[in-house]
Design a protein that fits this description.
10 helices; nine-stranded mixed sheet; elongated; TIM Barrel; eight-stranded parallel beta barrel; Lyase, Ornithine Decarboxylase, Chain A, domain 1; 2 domains; alpha/beta
Length: about 425
Protein backbone atom coordinates (compact mmCIF):
# COMPACT_ATOMS: atom_id res chain seq x y z
CA UNK A 1 0.00 0.00 0.00
CA UNK A 2 1.16 3.53 -0.75
CA UNK A 3 3.02 4.99 2.21
CA UNK A 4 2.41 8.36 3.80
CA UNK A 5 5.76 9.53 2.45
CA UNK A 6 4.87 8.47 -1.10
CA UNK A 7 1.53 10.28 -0.97
CA UNK A 8 3.12 13.45 0.42
CA UNK A 9 5.76 13.30 -2.30
CA UNK A 10 3.03 12.97 -4.93
CA UNK A 11 1.22 16.01 -3.55
CA UNK A 12 4.48 17.95 -3.54
CA UNK A 13 5.27 17.00 -7.11
CA UNK A 14 1.87 17.46 -8.73
CA UNK A 15 -0.05 19.69 -6.34
CA UNK A 16 -3.54 19.16 -4.99
CA UNK A 17 -6.29 18.17 -5.42
CA UNK A 18 -4.74 14.95 -6.68
CA UNK A 19 -6.02 11.40 -7.11
CA UNK A 20 -3.37 8.70 -6.61
CA UNK A 21 -4.02 5.07 -7.62
CA UNK A 22 -1.75 2.30 -6.33
CA UNK A 23 -1.31 -0.41 -8.99
CA UNK A 24 0.57 -2.76 -6.66
CA UNK A 25 -2.38 -2.76 -4.28
CA UNK A 26 -4.83 -3.38 -7.13
CA UNK A 27 -2.79 -6.39 -8.23
CA UNK A 28 -2.70 -7.70 -4.68
CA UNK A 29 -6.49 -7.40 -4.31
CA UNK A 30 -7.01 -9.16 -7.61
CA UNK A 31 -4.73 -11.98 -6.46
CA UNK A 32 -6.75 -12.33 -3.24
CA UNK A 33 -9.95 -12.46 -5.27
CA UNK A 34 -8.63 -15.17 -7.56
CA UNK A 35 -7.30 -17.15 -4.60
CA UNK A 36 -10.80 -17.11 -3.10
CA UNK A 37 -13.08 -17.44 -6.14
CA UNK A 38 -10.83 -18.36 -9.06
CA UNK A 39 -11.82 -22.01 -8.98
CA UNK A 40 -14.92 -21.14 -10.99
CA UNK A 41 -15.06 -17.39 -11.61
CA UNK A 42 -13.37 -15.03 -14.01
CA UNK A 43 -13.26 -11.29 -13.31
CA UNK A 44 -14.98 -8.51 -15.24
CA UNK A 45 -13.94 -4.95 -14.37
CA UNK A 46 -16.71 -2.33 -14.40
CA UNK A 47 -15.15 0.56 -16.31
CA UNK A 48 -17.66 3.06 -14.91
CA UNK A 49 -15.98 2.78 -11.50
CA UNK A 50 -12.78 4.34 -12.86
CA UNK A 51 -12.40 4.93 -16.62
CA UNK A 52 -8.92 6.49 -16.56
CA UNK A 53 -7.29 5.10 -19.72
CA UNK A 54 -3.86 4.60 -18.13
CA UNK A 55 -5.46 2.64 -15.29
CA UNK A 56 -7.46 0.58 -17.79
CA UNK A 57 -4.27 -0.16 -19.72
CA UNK A 58 -2.72 -1.56 -16.55
CA UNK A 59 -5.83 -3.62 -15.75
CA UNK A 60 -6.45 -5.03 -19.26
CA UNK A 61 -3.99 -7.95 -19.00
CA UNK A 62 -5.03 -8.73 -15.42
CA UNK A 63 -8.77 -9.30 -15.84
CA UNK A 64 -10.88 -11.45 -18.13
CA UNK A 65 -13.10 -8.71 -19.51
CA UNK A 66 -14.24 -5.12 -19.16
CA UNK A 67 -17.87 -4.18 -18.57
CA UNK A 68 -18.79 -0.86 -20.20
CA UNK A 69 -21.94 1.18 -19.72
CA UNK A 70 -21.65 3.55 -22.69
CA UNK A 71 -20.04 3.24 -26.09
CA UNK A 72 -17.57 5.98 -25.12
CA UNK A 73 -16.37 3.63 -22.36
CA UNK A 74 -15.90 0.92 -25.00
CA UNK A 75 -13.73 3.36 -26.96
CA UNK A 76 -11.69 4.09 -23.85
CA UNK A 77 -11.27 0.38 -23.19
CA UNK A 78 -10.11 -0.27 -26.75
CA UNK A 79 -7.72 2.68 -26.53
CA UNK A 80 -6.29 0.99 -23.43
CA UNK A 81 -5.60 -2.20 -25.39
CA UNK A 82 -8.67 -4.29 -24.56
CA UNK A 83 -9.94 -6.30 -27.53
CA UNK A 84 -13.59 -5.58 -28.52
CA UNK A 85 -14.48 -9.25 -28.12
CA UNK A 86 -13.55 -9.00 -24.40
CA UNK A 87 -16.09 -6.25 -23.76
CA UNK A 88 -19.57 -6.58 -22.25
CA UNK A 89 -21.93 -3.64 -22.80
CA UNK A 90 -24.55 -3.02 -20.08
CA UNK A 91 -26.83 -0.09 -19.37
CA UNK A 92 -30.55 0.65 -19.55
CA UNK A 93 -30.32 3.66 -21.87
CA UNK A 94 -28.27 2.55 -24.85
CA UNK A 95 -28.83 4.89 -27.78
CA UNK A 96 -29.56 3.26 -31.14
CA UNK A 97 -26.29 4.57 -32.53
CA UNK A 98 -24.39 3.04 -29.60
CA UNK A 99 -25.98 -0.35 -30.25
CA UNK A 100 -25.21 -0.11 -33.96
CA UNK A 101 -21.58 0.82 -33.31
CA UNK A 102 -21.21 -1.99 -30.77
CA UNK A 103 -22.45 -4.50 -33.34
CA UNK A 104 -20.19 -3.03 -35.99
CA UNK A 105 -16.97 -3.41 -33.96
CA UNK A 106 -17.72 -7.00 -32.99
CA UNK A 107 -18.27 -6.28 -29.30
CA UNK A 108 -18.13 -9.44 -27.20
CA UNK A 109 -21.54 -9.43 -25.50
CA UNK A 110 -24.31 -6.90 -25.70
CA UNK A 111 -26.37 -7.10 -22.50
CA UNK A 112 -29.96 -6.49 -23.55
CA UNK A 113 -32.03 -4.85 -20.84
CA UNK A 114 -35.31 -4.75 -22.78
CA UNK A 115 -36.87 -6.36 -25.81
CA UNK A 116 -36.66 -2.97 -27.53
CA UNK A 117 -32.86 -3.11 -27.26
CA UNK A 118 -32.86 -6.71 -28.48
CA UNK A 119 -34.89 -5.81 -31.56
CA UNK A 120 -32.65 -2.87 -32.36
CA UNK A 121 -29.56 -5.07 -32.08
CA UNK A 122 -31.18 -7.71 -34.27
CA UNK A 123 -32.00 -5.12 -36.93
CA UNK A 124 -28.51 -3.59 -36.94
CA UNK A 125 -26.84 -7.01 -37.03
CA UNK A 126 -28.99 -7.93 -40.02
CA UNK A 127 -28.09 -4.71 -41.82
CA UNK A 128 -24.38 -5.30 -41.11
CA UNK A 129 -24.53 -8.95 -42.19
CA UNK A 130 -23.49 -10.41 -38.85
CA UNK A 131 -24.86 -12.04 -35.69
CA UNK A 132 -24.49 -10.28 -32.36
CA UNK A 133 -23.84 -12.23 -29.18
CA UNK A 134 -26.13 -11.09 -26.36
CA UNK A 135 -26.75 -11.75 -22.69
CA UNK A 136 -30.21 -11.23 -21.25
CA UNK A 137 -30.18 -9.17 -18.08
CA UNK A 138 -32.68 -10.35 -15.48
CA UNK A 139 -33.96 -8.16 -12.65
CA UNK A 140 -34.64 -10.39 -9.60
CA UNK A 141 -37.97 -10.19 -7.81
CA UNK A 142 -36.19 -10.34 -4.45
CA UNK A 143 -32.75 -9.65 -3.04
CA UNK A 144 -31.14 -9.37 0.39
CA UNK A 145 -31.48 -6.07 2.24
CA UNK A 146 -27.73 -5.79 2.38
CA UNK A 147 -26.72 -3.45 -0.43
CA UNK A 148 -25.86 0.25 -0.39
CA UNK A 149 -27.81 0.49 -3.65
CA UNK A 150 -30.52 -2.09 -4.34
CA UNK A 151 -31.62 -2.49 -7.97
CA UNK A 152 -34.08 -5.36 -7.67
CA UNK A 153 -37.42 -6.25 -6.15
CA UNK A 154 -39.02 -3.03 -7.39
CA UNK A 155 -39.84 -1.27 -10.67
CA UNK A 156 -36.49 -0.78 -12.37
CA UNK A 157 -34.91 0.35 -15.60
CA UNK A 158 -32.40 -2.48 -15.25
CA UNK A 159 -33.09 -5.69 -17.13
CA UNK A 160 -36.14 -7.86 -17.67
CA UNK A 161 -38.23 -8.50 -14.57
CA UNK A 162 -37.77 -12.04 -13.30
CA UNK A 163 -41.54 -12.56 -13.67
CA UNK A 164 -41.21 -11.85 -17.42
CA UNK A 165 -37.97 -13.69 -18.15
CA UNK A 166 -39.55 -16.76 -19.74
CA UNK A 167 -41.48 -14.67 -22.26
CA UNK A 168 -38.36 -12.58 -22.96
CA UNK A 169 -36.26 -15.70 -23.59
CA UNK A 170 -38.88 -16.94 -26.05
CA UNK A 171 -38.93 -13.57 -27.82
CA UNK A 172 -35.13 -13.49 -28.11
CA UNK A 173 -35.00 -17.02 -29.46
CA UNK A 174 -36.81 -16.05 -32.65
CA UNK A 175 -34.62 -13.03 -33.51
CA UNK A 176 -32.47 -14.39 -36.34
CA UNK A 177 -29.47 -12.11 -36.00
CA UNK A 178 -28.88 -12.51 -32.26
CA UNK A 179 -26.94 -15.27 -30.52
CA UNK A 180 -28.15 -15.64 -26.95
CA UNK A 181 -25.11 -16.79 -24.96
CA UNK A 182 -26.47 -16.62 -21.43
CA UNK A 183 -27.68 -14.35 -18.66
CA UNK A 184 -26.58 -11.39 -16.56
CA UNK A 185 -27.75 -10.23 -13.14
CA UNK A 186 -26.58 -7.26 -11.11
CA UNK A 187 -29.07 -6.73 -8.32
CA UNK A 188 -27.20 -4.49 -5.87
CA UNK A 189 -23.91 -2.85 -5.00
CA UNK A 190 -21.66 -1.90 -2.10
CA UNK A 191 -22.51 -4.60 0.42
CA UNK A 192 -20.27 -5.49 3.34
CA UNK A 193 -22.68 -8.11 4.68
CA UNK A 194 -21.19 -11.61 4.50
CA UNK A 195 -24.64 -13.16 4.99
CA UNK A 196 -26.31 -10.89 2.45
CA UNK A 197 -23.70 -11.53 -0.23
CA UNK A 198 -23.88 -15.29 0.27
CA UNK A 199 -27.67 -15.17 0.08
CA UNK A 200 -27.45 -13.14 -3.11
CA UNK A 201 -25.25 -15.76 -4.79
CA UNK A 202 -27.92 -18.33 -3.95
CA UNK A 203 -30.69 -16.17 -5.42
CA UNK A 204 -28.73 -15.59 -8.63
CA UNK A 205 -27.87 -19.27 -8.99
CA UNK A 206 -31.53 -20.24 -8.63
CA UNK A 207 -32.63 -17.71 -11.26
CA UNK A 208 -29.93 -18.87 -13.68
CA UNK A 209 -31.06 -22.47 -13.24
CA UNK A 210 -34.68 -21.63 -13.96
CA UNK A 211 -33.84 -19.40 -16.93
CA UNK A 212 -31.66 -22.12 -18.41
CA UNK A 213 -34.30 -24.82 -17.86
CA UNK A 214 -36.88 -22.74 -19.73
CA UNK A 215 -34.46 -21.91 -22.52
CA UNK A 216 -33.44 -25.52 -23.00
CA UNK A 217 -29.90 -24.61 -24.08
CA UNK A 218 -26.52 -24.71 -22.34
CA UNK A 219 -25.44 -21.15 -21.48
CA UNK A 220 -21.95 -20.16 -22.50
CA UNK A 221 -21.73 -17.34 -19.98
CA UNK A 222 -23.33 -16.22 -16.73
CA UNK A 223 -22.44 -12.89 -15.10
CA UNK A 224 -22.86 -12.64 -11.33
CA UNK A 225 -23.02 -8.99 -10.25
CA UNK A 226 -20.87 -9.34 -7.17
CA UNK A 227 -21.93 -6.22 -5.27
CA UNK A 228 -18.86 -6.39 -2.99
CA UNK A 229 -18.54 -3.23 -0.90
CA UNK A 230 -15.59 -1.36 0.59
CA UNK A 231 -15.18 0.04 4.14
CA UNK A 232 -15.78 3.75 3.60
CA UNK A 233 -16.53 4.51 7.26
CA UNK A 234 -14.14 4.11 10.19
CA UNK A 235 -16.53 1.57 11.73
CA UNK A 236 -16.74 -0.57 8.58
CA UNK A 237 -14.86 -3.87 8.21
CA UNK A 238 -13.49 -5.43 5.02
CA UNK A 239 -15.22 -8.46 3.50
CA UNK A 240 -13.56 -11.73 4.48
CA UNK A 241 -13.23 -13.16 0.97
CA UNK A 242 -12.03 -16.57 2.08
CA UNK A 243 -14.96 -17.00 4.47
CA UNK A 244 -17.43 -15.78 1.86
CA UNK A 245 -16.01 -18.12 -0.78
CA UNK A 246 -16.19 -21.06 1.64
CA UNK A 247 -19.92 -20.46 1.98
CA UNK A 248 -20.64 -19.65 -1.67
CA UNK A 249 -18.52 -22.11 -3.64
CA UNK A 250 -20.23 -25.35 -2.60
CA UNK A 251 -23.37 -24.07 -4.30
CA UNK A 252 -21.35 -23.11 -7.36
CA UNK A 253 -19.68 -26.54 -7.34
CA UNK A 254 -23.13 -28.09 -7.44
CA UNK A 255 -24.15 -25.83 -10.33
CA UNK A 256 -21.04 -26.68 -12.34
CA UNK A 257 -21.63 -30.38 -11.73
CA UNK A 258 -24.87 -30.19 -13.70
CA UNK A 259 -24.46 -31.03 -17.42
CA UNK A 260 -26.12 -27.76 -18.51
CA UNK A 261 -23.43 -25.68 -16.76
CA UNK A 262 -20.32 -27.84 -16.98
CA UNK A 263 -18.79 -25.69 -19.73
CA UNK A 264 -20.37 -22.38 -18.74
CA UNK A 265 -18.04 -19.42 -18.15
CA UNK A 266 -18.88 -17.67 -14.88
CA UNK A 267 -17.79 -14.09 -14.19
CA UNK A 268 -17.84 -11.78 -11.21
CA UNK A 269 -18.46 -8.18 -12.22
CA UNK A 270 -16.59 -5.82 -9.91
CA UNK A 271 -15.42 -2.23 -9.96
CA UNK A 272 -15.63 -0.56 -6.58
CA UNK A 273 -14.15 -3.48 -4.63
CA UNK A 274 -11.16 -3.89 -6.92
CA UNK A 275 -9.96 -0.27 -7.22
CA UNK A 276 -11.80 1.72 -4.54
CA UNK A 277 -9.43 1.02 -1.61
CA UNK A 278 -6.43 1.52 -3.92
CA UNK A 279 -6.96 5.24 -4.43
CA UNK A 280 -6.70 8.43 -2.38
CA UNK A 281 -7.80 11.98 -3.03
CA UNK A 282 -5.14 14.28 -1.65
CA UNK A 283 -6.26 17.77 -0.67
CA UNK A 284 -4.48 20.70 0.96
CA UNK A 285 -5.83 22.77 3.83
CA UNK A 286 -6.05 26.29 2.42
CA UNK A 287 -7.99 28.01 5.17
CA UNK A 288 -8.57 27.79 8.93
CA UNK A 289 -10.99 29.64 11.17
CA UNK A 290 -13.14 29.31 14.26
CA UNK A 291 -16.86 30.03 13.94
CA UNK A 292 -19.25 29.93 16.88
CA UNK A 293 -17.27 27.35 18.76
CA UNK A 294 -16.45 25.16 15.72
CA UNK A 295 -12.98 24.79 14.25
CA UNK A 296 -13.31 24.95 10.47
CA UNK A 297 -10.73 23.74 7.99
CA UNK A 298 -11.17 24.68 4.34
CA UNK A 299 -9.58 22.36 1.81
CA UNK A 300 -9.03 22.73 -1.94
CA UNK A 301 -11.19 19.69 -2.80
CA UNK A 302 -14.95 20.15 -2.72
CA UNK A 303 -17.89 18.06 -3.84
CA UNK A 304 -17.02 19.18 -7.37
CA UNK A 305 -13.94 16.99 -6.90
CA UNK A 306 -15.36 14.00 -5.01
CA UNK A 307 -19.15 13.90 -4.90
CA UNK A 308 -19.34 10.54 -3.15
CA UNK A 309 -17.09 11.50 -0.22
CA UNK A 310 -19.30 14.54 0.34
CA UNK A 311 -22.30 12.23 0.68
CA UNK A 312 -24.08 13.16 -2.54
CA UNK A 313 -24.21 9.89 -4.45
CA UNK A 314 -27.29 8.24 -2.98
CA UNK A 315 -26.50 8.63 0.71
CA UNK A 316 -29.55 9.43 2.84
CA UNK A 317 -27.40 10.57 5.77
CA UNK A 318 -23.92 11.95 5.10
CA UNK A 319 -21.26 10.24 7.22
CA UNK A 320 -17.57 10.99 7.60
CA UNK A 321 -15.33 8.87 5.40
CA UNK A 322 -11.89 7.69 6.48
CA UNK A 323 -9.65 10.76 6.34
CA UNK A 324 -6.02 11.10 7.42
CA UNK A 325 -3.75 14.06 8.09
CA UNK A 326 -0.63 13.09 6.18
CA UNK A 327 1.38 16.12 7.26
CA UNK A 328 1.00 15.69 11.02
CA UNK A 329 -0.07 12.11 11.80
CA UNK A 330 1.20 12.20 15.39
CA UNK A 331 -0.35 15.50 16.43
CA UNK A 332 -2.81 15.92 19.27
CA UNK A 333 -6.33 14.93 18.28
CA UNK A 334 -8.67 17.82 17.59
CA UNK A 335 -12.23 18.01 16.31
CA UNK A 336 -13.00 19.79 13.03
CA UNK A 337 -15.63 20.53 10.44
CA UNK A 338 -13.89 20.15 7.09
CA UNK A 339 -15.34 21.97 4.09
CA UNK A 340 -14.41 22.54 0.48
CA UNK A 341 -13.81 25.79 -1.42
CA UNK A 342 -17.21 26.10 -3.08
CA UNK A 343 -19.65 28.96 -2.52
CA UNK A 344 -22.41 26.79 -1.04
CA UNK A 345 -23.11 25.56 2.48
CA UNK A 346 -23.59 21.99 1.26
CA UNK A 347 -19.88 21.74 0.44
CA UNK A 348 -19.09 19.91 3.70
CA UNK A 349 -16.76 16.92 3.73
CA UNK A 350 -16.88 16.03 7.43
CA UNK A 351 -18.38 17.23 10.68
CA UNK A 352 -17.04 16.56 14.19
CA UNK A 353 -14.09 14.84 12.52
CA UNK A 354 -11.31 13.86 14.88
CA UNK A 355 -7.91 14.43 13.26
CA UNK A 356 -4.37 15.12 14.41
CA UNK A 357 -4.03 18.90 14.67
CA UNK A 358 -4.17 20.53 11.24
CA UNK A 359 -2.68 23.76 9.93
CA UNK A 360 -2.88 25.65 6.68
CA UNK A 361 -0.70 23.82 4.16
CA UNK A 362 -1.27 20.35 5.59
CA UNK A 363 -2.25 17.60 3.18
CA UNK A 364 -5.16 15.34 4.03
CA UNK A 365 -5.99 12.05 2.32
CA UNK A 366 -9.54 10.86 1.65
CA UNK A 367 -9.28 7.09 1.57
CA UNK A 368 -11.22 4.60 -0.61
CA UNK A 369 -11.22 7.07 -3.49
CA UNK A 370 -10.09 4.80 -6.32
CA UNK A 371 -13.64 4.27 -7.59
CA UNK A 372 -16.47 6.69 -8.33
CA UNK A 373 -14.27 9.68 -7.59
CA UNK A 374 -13.23 12.16 -10.25
CA UNK A 375 -15.52 11.09 -13.10
CA UNK A 376 -18.54 10.88 -10.79
CA UNK A 377 -18.14 14.51 -9.77
CA UNK A 378 -19.33 17.85 -11.26
CA UNK A 379 -15.80 19.14 -11.89
CA UNK A 380 -16.89 22.29 -13.74
CA UNK A 381 -19.05 23.59 -10.90
CA UNK A 382 -17.73 27.08 -9.98
CA UNK A 383 -14.66 26.47 -12.21
CA UNK A 384 -12.19 25.48 -9.53
CA UNK A 385 -9.13 23.55 -10.73
CA UNK A 386 -9.82 20.00 -11.81
CA UNK A 387 -7.90 17.33 -9.88
CA UNK A 388 -4.90 15.67 -11.42
CA UNK A 389 -4.50 11.89 -11.47
CA UNK A 390 -1.41 9.75 -10.95
CA UNK A 391 -0.47 6.08 -10.86
CA UNK A 392 1.91 4.68 -8.26
CA UNK A 393 3.61 1.52 -9.51
CA UNK A 394 6.46 -0.02 -7.56
CA UNK A 395 7.09 3.33 -5.90
CA UNK A 396 7.25 5.17 -9.23
CA UNK A 397 4.81 8.05 -9.68
CA UNK A 398 3.39 8.78 -13.15
CA UNK A 399 0.91 11.53 -13.90
CA UNK A 400 -2.04 10.20 -15.93
CA UNK A 401 -4.33 13.24 -15.89
CA UNK A 402 -6.74 13.29 -18.81
CA UNK A 403 -8.27 16.74 -18.47
CA UNK A 404 -6.59 19.88 -17.24
CA UNK A 405 -9.28 22.10 -18.73
CA UNK A 406 -8.97 24.82 -16.12
CA UNK A 407 -6.08 23.63 -14.00
CA UNK A 408 -3.82 26.32 -12.67
CA UNK A 409 -1.24 26.53 -9.95
CA UNK A 410 -0.23 29.62 -8.06
CA UNK A 411 3.47 30.31 -8.22
CA UNK A 412 5.33 31.70 -5.24
CA UNK A 413 7.09 34.34 -7.31
Amino acid sequence: MATREELLAAAGALGTPLYVYDLDLIRARLERLRDAFGRHFGVSFAVKSNPNVALLKALAPLVDSFDVSAFAEAERAIAAGMEPERLTFCGPGKRPEEIRRAVRIGLGELVVESLHEARLADRFAGELGTRQTVLLRINPATSPRAFGVNMSGKPSQFGIDEEEMAAAIDALAVLPNLDLAGFHIYSGSNSLSHEGLAENFGILTDIFRRATAHWGQKPRKLVFGAGFGVPYLPTDAEIDLAALAAEVLPGIDALKAEPAFAETELELELGRWLVGPCGWLLSSIIGAKASRGTELRICDAGFNTHLAAYGMMGSVIRRNWRIANLSNPEGSIERYTVVGPLCTTIDTLATKLELPATSIGDVIAIENSGAYGLTSSPTRFISHPEPREALLDGGRLTEVSESLLNHWRLADN
